[in-house]
Predict the structure.
Amino acid sequence: MINATMRASSGCLITLGGQASTHASVASTAVASLQAATWAAVYRRLQLSLSEGALSATADLSALADFLITVVDGISLQAQRGTKAPALESAATMAVNALPWIEPGSQRPSMADTVD
């Protein structure tokens, strides 16, 4: 299980590690594996939201996972540059609100939810 603390501490490593390890095949492979596992965890959480009836049945889960990972990567880069937490949290909230929820205010996953 990945908890919120683990996600917060590893996000920048996964995002920036891919950039820094282009010439180190072992590190590059490890980072690529972590990135794939992160994408899969996001996709599984979207599937759960879909099965709970929170997301539109026409939602493209693969595209949504790509979108959310892109946002997370951007947030990681901004955090690395010193952007303050309130601005980063605002960006994350905007991304979650951009998802195709069935109705405004439907049960949305909390930022503290865990992903198995």
Observations:
- Residues 25-51 form the longest helix (27 residues).
- The chain has one domain: 4-97.
- Residues 4-97 form one domain.
- Confidence is low (pLDDT under 50) at residues 1-9.
